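User: I'm preparing a small set of examples for a lab meeting where we compare how different chains pack in three dimensions. I only have the primary sequence for this one, and I'd like the structure in token form so I can line it up with the others. Please keep the answer compact; I'll paste it straight into my notes.
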Amino acid sequence: MKMRIASFVLAAITSLMIFATNETTAQVIGSKYGKDSAKCVTNLSLYREFYKQKNYKAAIISWRQVFYNCPLATENIFINGASMYKSFITAQKDTVVKKRLIDTLMLIYDARIKYYGKEGLHLARKANDLLNADSTRSFEAFTILKRSIELLKNASEESTILNYCITGVTNFKAGKITNDALVGLYNETASIIDGHLNSVPTKADSLKWSGIRTMIETKTFPLLQCKDISDIYTGKITATPNDLDLLKKISGILYRKGCTDDSLYLYSMEQMNSIEPNANTAFLIAREYIKRKNVPSAISSLVNVVDKLKDNESKARNYYYLGVVYFDSKDYSNARTNALKAIQLKSDYGEAYILIADCYAQSAAGCGNDDVSSRAPFWCAVDILNKAKAVDPKLTATTNKLISQYSLNFPNTEMLFFR
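Assistant: Understood. Below is the structure token output for the 419-residue chain.
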């Protein structure tokens, strides 16, 4: 083995001497191989030979000499060095020693950037290796990844973006970065993803980047405030107010987040309903107006959409929802009228029958001037509830509960006798 290494080193030195035949070439070699070029080539050859054999403990001795004395000899010094130190880190059990090894790995990346550039790329790799080596240093990794993304922008790799998001969320939960920083993280990554999606990507790339965006939103949005999410999307919806997919996405995110009080939610729902009329959407809009104590607008949202609906199922649902809005406003007459319209379009609409029954029950107190007259509407209510479960057996449990409740209000024998 010793003879083999000695021969290899001798050949390398001889090659160097032949190459340095003129002054200009000697100057180039001198700058590349350090002050002692022969020693540099010797150590370079030694570490390479041991490295090929995966004898990293032997290789690292000569490697250190090359790293410190002639780092410009070849970029492989940094590639091989990182590989060896990652191997040492994985095998090391002592936490103190392991930390020193990780620090050296970080130093290798810094030196590579110093001598060979490509800062953004190597910062990303540095951060990824740091996370793999010691997940407790996630804040340090986060700051490195942030700088990498600032430099690379759309050239950032998927793993860099994902790790930036993961470390950002981790540090936000730990109280190490602010809400504004998390919003900034989303905006930075969203800009990169938009760049890829707007560049006419292949179907596979489009699915990939859309998936990354979904993952980032899934991790960050639960941590953001309603105002943050609204601020993120207001500009986008203003720029493309007729983008139905965007409108559905925004309204869905705000709904799941519990941000329905935000004006952007109502705006996106109304825009969506104007483009694609839907009874469910109209009812959600109406409900928002009721929350805002604007009953006329709630009613209008449902009235205006009914003629745009194409099938009886949707129209029936719209009339039922309109009845619910009137019922919530204590207008039981109009509530009953619209429930009947729903039943005319859908004869097995059990919920509409229940709504009519509730209207009778709620308006009972205003019927007649005696106990019998004011309680008689509960007879009607129970009859209608029996009809409801007859047309829709799935409602049996609900209707039976109401029947038991309303039956308690029937006129008793004494009331009927003395009437």
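A couple of notes for your slides: The chain is about 80% helix and 0% strand. The mean pLDDT is 89.

User: Perfect, thanks.
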